[in-house]
Specification:
The complex is a heterodimer of chains A (about 375) and B (about 210).
Chain A: E1 5-6, H1 17-28, H2 41-60, E2 68-71, H3 74-89, E3 96-100, H4 105-116, E4 120-124, H5 134-140, E5 145-149, H6 163-172, E6 176-180, E7 199-203, E8 214-218, H7 233-236, H8 244-256, H9 259-279, E9 283-285, E10 296-301, H10 306-314, E11 318-319, E12 321-322, H11 335-341, H12 344-348, E13 350-354, H13 361-380
Parallel strand pairs in A: 1-11, 3-4, 3-5, 5-6, 6-7
Antiparallel strand pairs in A: 2-8, 7-8, 9-10, 10-13, 12-13
Helix pairs in contact in A: 1-8, 2-8, 3-4, 9-13, 10-13
Chain B: H1 7-14, E1 27-32, E2 39-46, E3 53-61, H2 64-77, H3 82-85, H4 90-96, H5 105-125, H6 137-144, E4 148-149, E5 154-155, E6 162-168, E7 171-179, H7 185-197, E8 204-210
Parallel strand pairs in B: 7-8
Antiparallel strand pairs in B: 1-2, 2-3, 4-5, 6-7
Helix pairs in contact in B: 1-2, 2-5
Classes of the chains: A alpha/beta (about 375), B alpha+beta (about 210).
């Protein structure tokens, strides 16, 4: 295989060998279901492996092991958080939810589904950097509000919300707070003993862990009804076969992330941003200039279209993504870029580059140098930007 | 690797033919707008005696399908008379490229439309438009089909954005099924006005929004 320059780590990451190593015995040696302590030995061992993974992941959030449930990934976690709270509190307390306009699809579309079922949802605006307006949030909360769901770090532009302040506003008014931490878990500090938060979505796929495993932190006593029936797995909140290799791999993946690694990612991110700003004219950085996830750089290149950029980069083995409508399956431009800038052009030429553990400084420099060439060539044939 | 684009499309995308501008063109046109998505401009040099397209260049602010179609359409048109060239269809362009992904059809249509518009521009400038057709709702609708609805990625007619069209004494009134406060309202309005106001018997274009 030719050399690949993979800068799409927000979408999926390469598995770390050390993660696979701890998962393999769960497929070949201790492959049984997790049984109760009265079951056969193999099942008891499987149960121990699952519980151990749960405890370690819960601890990473400052939580107790009974507060962490495994799911199939962040989409399921966020579905359970929104629909589960709606089911538990809709009849008892009220039918109003608040989410930000730049949430990822699982939150956004769960909210839309709930609207069809008779709930009302407010979609909170963000400013030009992608930050929600805390005063507006406060003003939107009413007695029937059951849940506020605002992400920790954005999937496209990397902006980090002040979840400390958001959680405080919610709890002061007795409203549950869910945050989607898919892009921040282990990358940006998040401790439930310090932040007022009731539900947290996390996933292994952004952390060089396996695909198809995620988790939901559910603070003790939170009103949450299950949305998937099955056995009594996951404290009877999520029926279905335990994904024990996945759970064990997830715990290992989380453990492998170090503070140094996160600093290293931020160095690569900043290299991309400064090199592009210094060498390529007519660009805009999307997202907050400082308050952003360590792995995310998102830049709009004026006068050119994103799919054309990504297709040219692909010929060099470079993988990045774009918010251009032409690139998406739905042919809709990025809702995140629309929410921060309001114009289609900004999404049209936006490129997201997200770094991970296996990227090097040489790779990042090669990507920006190639990007410079590609953008120059596309600008030569563009009708815009010449006067 | 299974790319949605075939090798010929990719080749035209990588090395587009006839790109750039012609100084002092005999005919030129632009379709699309940066506010609504792809945009493509086209320039012509036409032999005044034979009406053969001697030179043709295009510029694209668009995706691969838009660039590749611009490239093939200029190759197809070069050397043809303007009457032959204006009959080149999207199907012909697409076939010459060995087929385009269906979902990308609208991006490539712009590149075909711009050739026709540039020829029309040439004809208007050189007094070749003999019969003046009175503007009807159908003509307005046809022109509005060239305006993209950026919310859906398709044109504003296909996406049912156009609610009403009235034509009265040189004034066209268009009602759009969109709130005035919508983030794309102004961009769509400007694009729609630009497409209609150039009609010879139209003095004013009014765009109204629903609530």
């Amino acid at each position: 295989m030719e050399k690949v320059y993979y800068l799409d780590n927000a979408a999926a990451t390469r598995l770390d060998e050390q993660v696979l190593e701890v998962m393999t015995p769960l497929y070949f040696d201790r492959y049984s279901v997790a049984t109760s302590e009265f079951g056969y030995s193999l099942g008891v061992e499987a149960k121990e492996a699952l519980d151990d993974a749960r405890t370690r992941l819960a601890q990473a959030l400052g939580a107790n092991s009974q507060e962490f449930i495994f799911t199939s990934g962040s989409a399921e976690s966020s579905n359970l958080a929104l629909k589960g709270v709606a089911k538990a509190l809709g009849a008892k307390k009220g039918k109003h939810l608040i989410v930000s306009k730049i949430e990822d699809f699982p939150v956004l579309y769960s909210a839309r589904t709930l609207e069809k079922e008779g709930f009302s949802v407010d979609y909170l605006d963000v400013d030009g950097d992608g930050l929600v307006d805390l005063k507006k949030l406060q003003a939107l909360i009413r007695p029937e509000t059951i849940l506020v769901s605002i992400q920790h770090g954005n999937q496209e532009i990397g902006t980090l919300q002040d979840i400390n302040a958001i959680g405080k506003i919610c709890h002061d008014q007795g409203v549950l707070f869910h945050t989607d931490a898919t892009h921040t878990f282990m990358r940006v500090p998040l401790d439930v003993t310090a932040v007022a938060v009731d539900l947290i979505t996390v996933s292994a796929h952004t952390l060089h862990g396996p695909k198809g495993i995620g988790g939901l932190y559910v603070k003790k006593g939170t009103a949450l009804a299950k949305i998937m029936d099955g056995g009594f797995q996951e404290f009877d909140l999520r029926g279905g076969m335990d994904n024990i290799p996945g759970a064990v791999g997830f715990a290992k993946a989380a453990e492998l992330v170090t503070a140094d690694e996160n600093i290293g990612l931020a160095v690569l991110r900043d290299k991309i941003i400064t090199m592009v700003s210094d060498q390529i004219p007519d660009v805009i950085l999307n997202g907050h200039p400082r308050q952003r996830t360590p792995q995310n750089a998102n830049i709009t290149f004026h006068y050119v279209e994103g799919e054309s950029i990504t297709l040219h980069l692909d010929m060099y083995g470079i993988a990045v993504s774009t918010g251009s409508a032409c690139f998406s399956r739905s042919l809709e431009a990025s809702h995140v870029i629309a929410a921060i800038g309001g114009d289609h052009e900004r999404a049209h030429g936006s490129i997201r580059m997200t770094v991970g553990r296996f990227n090097t400084m040489e790779e990042v420099i090669f990507v920006v140098e190639t990007l410079k060439k590609v953008v120059e060539n596309l600008r030569k044939i563009s009708p815009l930007g010449k006067e | 690797m299974a790319s949605p684009y075939n090798d010929l499309v990719l080749e035209h995308f990588k090395n587009p033919r006839n790109t750039g501008r012609i100084e002092d063109p005999d005919g030129k046109a632009t379709e699309g707008s940066p506010a609504c998505g792809d945009m493509v401009s086209l320039y012509l040099k036409v032999d005044p005696e034979t009406r053969v397209i001697d030179d043709i260049k295009f510029e694209s602010y668009g995706c691969a399908s838009n660039i590749a179609t611009g490239s093939i359409i200029t190759e197809l048109a070069k050397g043809k008379t303007i009457d032959e060239a204006k009959n080149i269809t999207w199907q012909e362009a697409s076939e010459a490229l060995g087929g385009l992904p269906k979902i990308k059809a609208h991006c490539s249509v712009l590149a075909v439309e711009v050739l026709r518009s540039a020829i029309q521009n040439y004809e208007e400038k050189h007094g070749l438009v003999t019969e003046k057709v009175v503007t009807t709702e159908e003509i307005v609708r046809k022109r509005l089909k060239k305006v993209m609805n950026p919310i859906k990625g398709l044109d504003m007619v296909a996406t049912h954005l156009v609610k009403e069209i009235d034509i009265n004494d040189g004034v066209v009134r268009i009602v759009l099924d969109l709130p005035e406060t919508h983030q794309f309202a102004n961009a769509i309005k400007e694009d729609a006005v630009e497409k209609i106001e150039s009609l010879w018997d139209i003095d004013q274009v009014i765009v109204e929004f629903t609530d």
